[in-house]
Amino acid sequence: MCLTRAFDQKAIYLQRTGRLGTFPSSKGQEGLFVGLGLAMASKDCLCPYYRDQGALFARGASLERLLAYWGGMELGNDLGLAYDMPISVPIASQTTYACGIAFAAKFKSENKVVFCTLGDGATSKGDFYEALNFAAIHKLALVFVINNNQFAISTPLAEQSPNADLSEKGLSFGIPGHSLLGNDIIAIYEKMQQLRQLALTEGPQIIAIKTFRMHDHTTADDAQRYLPENYLADAEKYDPVPTLAPKICAAVKTKQAQIIETKITAAVNNYLALNEQDSAFTHTFANMPKSLVKQKQFWEEEYAS
Amino acid sequence: MQASLILGINSALLHALENDANIVLFGQDIAQNGGVFRATEGLMQKFPKQVFNSPISEVLMTGMGTGMAIAKLKPIIEFQFSGFMLSAIEQLLIHAGRMRSRTRSRLHCPMVIRAPYGSGIGAPEHHSESPEALFAHIPGIRVVIPATAQRAHGLLLAAIDEPDPVVILEPKKLYHRQSAAIQVGLKTKLDQAFIEKTGTDLSIITWGAMLPLVKEITEKLTNINCEVIDLCSISPIDHDTIINSVKKTGRALVVHEACQSFGVGAEILAIIAEHCTPYLIAPPKRLTGFDIPTPYFKNEHQYFPQAKQIINAIRKIMEYHYA
Fold it and tell me: What is this structure's pTM?
């Protein structure tokens, strides 16, 4: 969690100094993501949305490659994770391919669970309901993890959904709903392990975890414009990092801080030296149509030379 | 044995299922019922694990196909009518069509989407749509329209083997049109147009249900020797076949049912303008549907090119002289 928090802080700094693009901090939500990432089996599949850096790092993702993603390079979609999907920006669109991956796992009788994360705003999308419906019919081993940080950019939950408790979203499909607060990473970790077993034996599960978004939606947002007065003060009470901190001894904390500092410095330096090598043309199709070959030739004459 | 488009499709699906245990077919009513046009007739009975009904969730279907393809299944998705497949545009554009580029080929989506398209069977509103241009404008996918039983069969086989998404729009008006026996298992090469009739006076480029109509008309026109091209590959377009033909004849006519503005005809005319202008002895033309919502079937023949309009268009081009 501390690595994620430090990374987010550094990413915001890079964005503010013109060296990274728009970036979504996960401050306050690290308990959810890191707890999830640590609980998943290595061959499980994570279908993230775009705020999952905590889960990605817990599963071994490259810090510098994630910076590359937010720095505007396709390189950033190779985080070194063999089993997980890339970041999904269009809201809730990952819920449907999560179904496809879970279906394939069932088809091949694999002992594999798909974890699909989404925000509170995503629970309004048709994609989400179609995915729940299908997952329930086929009893897919699929866990939907809703990060309810109570705001979809500026839209509070009450304007997004009639359900204050988003774990109810599965009721009409017979999908069990679970709820947790986002402040206790240990509880989250244990719950995710339980959900994993339930998904394998009984079918899809929904868990809604209430968190507080301690930073703006992204660096392009100004949450001061709309957050209620007490929101950030409440957020501090439910911050998962200080909640866990008393349980960690001082020596470990010091050592961790050093490791984190080293990792982040290395990642930033490597990121700043990165450049996209591959041509977009080469990777549009396996078999490049002639018409695209012609366009590539034009590109080489006009742009690449 | 006689064939038809629908039999060609069915035999291609059967052939594919017999040879690949990872193929999955889904769509509305394709299992027990064999599909509303019987494209999947008999398949669920032979391959019950691999052929199943999807709920009415078009948004889900394409997304699922994306995930299945990434997870090494081979999904072949049937949308019941092209008028109901528009949600597929979103998923193809945001994920399936760009997954390879996004991940620099680490992940890719070999998937096939097929749907009946076009008018001519007297169906209700929304059942006669021609949305090929909407799909053609999506990078990273292919769009094909087979107009013969052999092409329907062969292109489907080729699409199944292709490592990237292919959308097949099947001209439903031609589904049951009788044809000569087909060669089962013979793939048709993607990305190519076909010269259906060679000629010297005018290149007519068309596809789908318009193709047999144009062929019939031009075969009867004894004083004008038309070259008829089945575009077949809507995206990517086979530039070479069109360019070589129009350079030869000096005249071009595109015939399509879809509405005119921003249609595939516009793209073909752009290609002709860019590459054939010095060879043109008449301005290239398109004869198409109008920029109106697809009309209801009772009077649809008043809005889509018929024999009369096609013959008139041919005559006008042939009579054209630069001042």
Answer: 0.97
| Residue partners of A218: CB distance under 8 A and separation at least 6 | A22, A23, A24, A25
- Bridge partners of B204, per DSSP, are B228, B253
Q: Is A82 on the interface with B (CB under 8 A)?
A: no
pLDDT of residue B77 exceeding 70, the answer is: yes
Closest residue by Cα to residue B222 from B205, B246, B242, B199: B199
Cβ atoms of B169 and B129 closer than 8 Å: no
- Helix boundaries (H) for A111-249: 126-137, 157-160, 185-202, 231-237, 240-244
Residue type, B246: V
Please tell me what DSSP assigns to residue A300. I
Residues 6+ apart with CB under 8 A from A265: none
Token pair belonging to A131: 């995915």
Residues of B marked as catalytic: 127
| Known active-site residue A138 | no
Best A50, A97, A110, A134 member to test B by mutation, with max B CBs in 10 Å, is: A97
**Residue B82 has which token pair?**
């092209």
Whether this model's ipTM surpasses 0.90 comes out as yes
pLDDT digit string, tens, across residues A262-305: 999 999 999 999 998 778 899 999 999 999 999 999 999 999 87
Per CB-CB distance under 8 Å, the chain A contacts of B244 are none
Contact B236 A292 (CB under 8 A): yes
Question: Among candidates B184, B179, B231, which has minimal Cα distance to B204?
Answer: B231
> Which of B57, B94, B190 comes nearest A130 by C-beta?
B57
Nearest CA in chain B to A80: B106
Give φ, ψ of B68 to 5 degrees. Answer: -60, -45
- Chain B residues touching residue A130 (CB < 8 angstroms): 55, 57, 59-60
What pLDDT, in 10s, does the model give residues B256-292?
999 999 999 999 999 999 999 999 999 999 999 999 9
Which long-range CB contacts under 8 A does A35-38 form with residues at least 24 apart? A35/A185, A35/A186, A35/A187, A35/A188, A35/A189, A35/A191, A35/A192, A36/A115, A36/A117, A36/A145, A36/A188, A36/A192, A38/A189
Cα–Cα distance for residue pair B306/B311, rounded to 1 Å: 9
Helix (H) / strand (E) containing A272: helix A250-272
